[in-house]
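Bug #77: duplicate submission created two jobs. Keeping one. Sequence:
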Amino acid sequence: MQIIITTKNISLDKPLEVFIEEKIGGLSKFINNENVVTRIEIGKPSKHHRSGPIFRAEVNLKIGSKLVRAEAMDNDLRKAIVQVKNELQAQIKKLKEKNSVK
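Kept job's structure:
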């Protein structure tokens, strides 16, 4: 699984990069195809937000010709990443069930 991380209005440090690779890379056990490209965008939607710092995580997972996408917003970046991972995991399971029925 190839993981491409981009940031918006924040900087990416090594512990955060390792956290993302552990969480999103863990999805590879649900995917049998090794030609998977994962694009992750994390950051703040704006530099100033009325309710304090709001973080956004978006993941586009390309499995063959299928695209699985998830997005989450939270006041904690790590929580947003975990929410995205959980949503992707559910979508991947649905996709596998749909393909096994055919």
